[in-house]
Amino acid sequence: MSPSIRVRTPGELRASRRRRAHRCWGHLLAAPLWPLHGANLGTLLRTCDAVGACLAVPRFSWVPEALRRGNTLRQPACVHWVNDPLGWLGRQRDAGTAVDGVELDDESIRLADLPAARGRTVVVLGHEQHGIPPEALDLLDAVVEIPMVGTGSSLNVAVAGSLVLYKLAGLV
Fold this sequence. Notes:
This protein is of the alpha/beta class. The protein has a single domain (23-168), classed as SPOUT methyltransferase, trefoil knot domain (Alpha/beta knot). Helices cover 32% and strands 17% of the residues. It contains 6 helices and 7 strands, in the order H-E-H-E-H-E-H-E-E-E-H-E-H. The protein is globular. The mean pLDDT is 87. This is RNA methyltransferase.
């Protein structure tokens, strides 16, 4: 006998969503601390809303406008402003937050093997061309690798961050 599968109706899915934007839950934070493209920040902001996470971004002059344009929900979003990325990551780790990076590494965890976050977790995303700076790699508790079978060596930062956030949120 095969197990029965119940598919929720569109109305049931809508009813299960939050009525308004969340205040800081602080459980998951996406941290693209060395961004290159503003469009990636907007995409990550939308993913953060979808999984109930917050976005931690550096105080670059162009970031507020990128977030404003990317916030297609037109509701306030949970954004943490970071002045000193390395210092901020160190303080997060000292406070007991798990700090996971998305990067290629010899000791990385495959995305499929990544368990859902059990406590406050920061997902560090590197620069689109150079990855996570070497001095920040020492601050990571774990490194997540997204396997690829194509010819490219990496995914867009927003796509990679979205995949990892969904996995850590326990939604896939």
